[in-house]
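During data preparation, we tokenized the protein backbone, and the record follows.
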Amino acid sequence: MSSRLGRPHSTESAGVRNLILVLGDQLDTQSAAFDGFDKSKDLVWMAEVAEENTHVWCHKLRIAYFLAAMRHFRKHLVLRNIEVRYHELTAEPADDRGSSFSEVLELDVKELAPARLVVVEPGDWRVRETLKAAADSLGIELEIRPDSHFFCSVDEFQGWADGKKSLVMEFFYRWMRKKHDVLMEPDGKPVGGQWNLDHDNRESFGKSGPSESHAPKTFKSDEMTQDVINLVEQRFADHPGSLENFLLPVTRRQSLSMLRHFIEYTLPNFGRFEDAMWTDEAFLYHSRLSAPLNLKLLDPRECVTAAVIAYRNGAASLNSVEGFVRQILGWREFVRGIYWREMPDYADLNFLEHSGDVPSFFWDGDTDMECVRQSMQHVINHGYSHHIHRLMVLGNLAQLLGVHPVKFHEWHMAMYVDAVDWVSLPNTLGMSQFGDGGIVGTKPYCSTGNYINKMSPFCKNCRFDYRKRTGDDACPFTTLYWDFLDRQYDQLKDNQRMTFAMKNLEKRRADSAEIDGIRERANEIQDKFTPSE
């Protein structure tokens, strides 16, 4: 169904100058797409298309979040007297105007005859190439504008990276701190004398658990959001995940409220416990701001500024604020720079030559591994889990099992509401699965069950023993860790950060009975976890 809302001027009769394409992760009125916007000559174009929800088997909540945020953004534009050509998905696919951006755009370009298409750099290489191909086919100019949302432009990152043998996020982060004068002293040194306080941010909760945890900020679904939820339940009924916990901000006003809530109530405890996990606790002291940030409902500058002000006012400790700033000013900007520097070849990298599929319980959470069950419970219920669940539970297991890095990336794109290709691919293929061989991270992020036991109470409620490498009750993480090192010995033996692990492996290999037992148990686990055809 095509919806035309708000017609302050008859752009169609006069001819459209610029057709402004606004994608689902570009919901920002300050976007460069609106530079020079003239209500009497220009028209905004937005489309919900089935292909964006089915090219990976998207979580229901992810579909609903994007659609609800897009429709609220349309409403915001219309209230500002901006004309919007908007296409909604319908309950019946046959009633859609088209199934892809290309199909819908072609019909509208022929009808509206704009002089030019304008779009901000998409966050997905596939979408950018789709739009370029569509414009070429239609014989119309496509202007792709730089994305001013980020601290660091693609060209700036390229300039920083050129000539370097390796790209280290820590050095990039320090450069960004200096460039943007964030947590810096007048003499050019970092506030507190240290650039990185990660060593203060690795505490577990201990036996007693979180001492206090302020209830997360949630938002009641209005009629527009409820319509979207009903649509998704009807049209995408066979997709994974649940819609029972639609708690996310769908407007800029709600997103700013969520930011204020995090700064006031949660940031003070964020740093110490950012790596900790606890039973049935999905959010703990994490901000959950990645979803509105990645849809551009929030600006990263206002997030960083709010956190720094909290430190200056004594409302939050330096280690909490620095850790939060590093996630946004450092890591988020770094992985985007890597994405655009390395694509499209980056998506084909598979350093460890893994070829497996993700296990079936990555879609439904049906497993007797307590840590995985807990992590997947968060993913299924919220389309979310914090970074340790992602990296050291689900990502760790996928890597140890030998899942193809692109298949893991596609799963992540499907199941997380904050997943956009530019941020997901370097984090999954690179950081989590070491598929890039060290472009993003310097070593594989892998561990036995001991790490999970240290950072959570999960192992105490699990039928597997995190200390055992062999036997029916051996922890799959522990068995598969040693099997992974054994399989990948030639690839990893010269990695300096893996020296200690490889020496321990060599001790295991010296005992033929032990290494044979590990291999046998690993094969049993692989057979059990391999998805059936």
Remarks:
- Residues 421 and 524 are 34 Å apart (CA to CA).
